[in-house]
Amino acid sequence: MALGEFPEELSDRPPPPAPPTTPPDSTVTTVAPSRGPIVGPIADAVFGNRVLLIGDTVLASTAPRNDGLMCDVLVDFGWAAEIDAEPGRFIEFAQQVLDERLDPGDGEQWDAAALMFGNHFDGDLEAYARQLEAVLDRLSPRPTIVYTLSEVTADAVAINEIIRELPRAHPNVVVVDWAAATEVDLDLLLKDGGPALTDEGSRRLVLFTAAALGKPLSGEAGECLPSPFTDDSAIVL
Question: What is the C-alpha radius of gyration for the chain, rounded to an integer number of angstroms?
Answer without folding.
Answer: 16
